[in-house]
Amino acid sequence: MGRRKGRAAKKAKQSQVGRQDEEYKKAPHSFVFNRGHVGKNVKILMKDMRHVMEPYTASKLQVKKKNVLKDFINVAGAFNVSHFVIFTKTEVSTNLRLVRIPRGPTLTFKVNEYCLSKDIISSLKKPNLEQKQFLHHPLLVMNNFSSDEMSLKLMSTMFQNMFPSINVNKVKLNNIRRCVLLNYCTDTKQIDNIKVVPVGMSRGVKKLIKANVPDMSKYNDVSEYMVRGGNISESEAELDDPQNEIILPQHMGSRGNMKQARSAIRLTEIGPRMTLQLVKIEEGVCQGEVMYHEFIHKNDQEIQALKAFREKKRL
């Protein structure tokens, strides 16, 4: 018979489960869906976006034609959903809406260009398709978002609030498998996989450490493999640039990466990739007062007329 757990062990396990549930509830959750006819490629892009937002998203959310926006809003509270990511398509462009639930604001982007995950992965020589990388939320990396412009501040705040914050003192390096890159200069959004590999070794030693048994039939013994098999040209090897090297503060799950050892960071793009242009910011959920518009600028009379029209529509 197995040994029974004591009261202290049971309480510790219950408290750990309770902390995990509390962290899960506090984390921002999202619904990613489309409205109207968007076409096959945009639907695939929508599914790729769900992978980006995992694990705090409804990966298998079912959307029917008869569903209206209010249906999603009504169930959002029960699932702790804080953001909507909505894809739409018109005759002119494909659009992406980011909505803060339940009171807004709503940011509308024009998707100028996009590349699906399957296309990016197919172009890689050594794709990383490990499913464990989606068990934890990605690390958000933002560049050139420091500005006093109201639109840029709102955009920056929206992106930051869509992903859980990270406590530098408590974060586990083994949980950081992906990062979302946002560069304001080119409006490019990339999802990258962070990979740590040992440095300061020949390629032959790396293969042995990673448990990839090489073909040693042409060598007399292991020492000959170490000398001859490890000496290759720089063009064939993965270069270990000192700028990419770090001292690991924690032990990593991958082989050869130990605490206080020098390792190199490798980034592998897994997609999707999008080029976004901010078009509009409005109060509320998709139907409030327009706070910012890239192309249309209205005078005071037109603004007052729109306010009166919305008030009449509410009655």
Overall description:
The protein is α+β, with helices and mostly antiparallel strands and 315 residues long. The chain has a domain at 7-116 and 145-168 and 272-314: Rossmann fold (3-Layer(aba) Sandwich). The chain is built from eight helices and eleven strands. Strands 1, 2, 3, 4, 5, 6, 7, 8, 9, 10 and 11 form an eleven-stranded mixed β-sheet that branches. The protein is globular and about 85 Å long. Residues 229-238 have low confidence and may be disordered.
How is the secondary structure organized here?
Layout: H1 7-26, E1 29-34, H2 40-53, H3 69-76, E2 81-89, E3 94-100, E4 106-115, H4 117-122, E5 139-143, H5 150-161, E6 178-183, E7 188-198, H6 203-209, H7 222-229, E8 245-247, E9 262-269, E10 273-282, E11 290-293, H8 300-314
InterPro entries: Brix, PPAN-like
Pfam families: Brix (PF04427)
Protein name: Brix domain-containing protein
Helix content: 25-40%
The percentage of residues in β strands lies in 25-35%
Measured between the Cα atoms of the first and last residue, the distance is 70 Å
How many DSSP helices?
8
Order of helices and strands: HEHHEEEHEHEEHHEEEEH
Report on the biggest sheet: 11 strands, mixed
Radius of gyration over C-alpha positions, nearest whole angstrom: 25 Å
Given helix and strand content, the structural type is alpha+beta
CATH architecture of the domain at 7-116 and 145-168 and 272-314: 3-Layer(aba) Sandwich
The residue ranges in which pLDDT falls below 50 over 5 or more consecutive positions are 229-238
Mean pLDDT: 78
Please give the number of β-strands.
11
Q: Assign the CATH topology of the domain at 7-116 and 145-168 and 272-314.
A: Rossmann fold
Note the overall shape.
globular
CATH class of the domain at 7-116 and 145-168 and 272-314: Alpha Beta
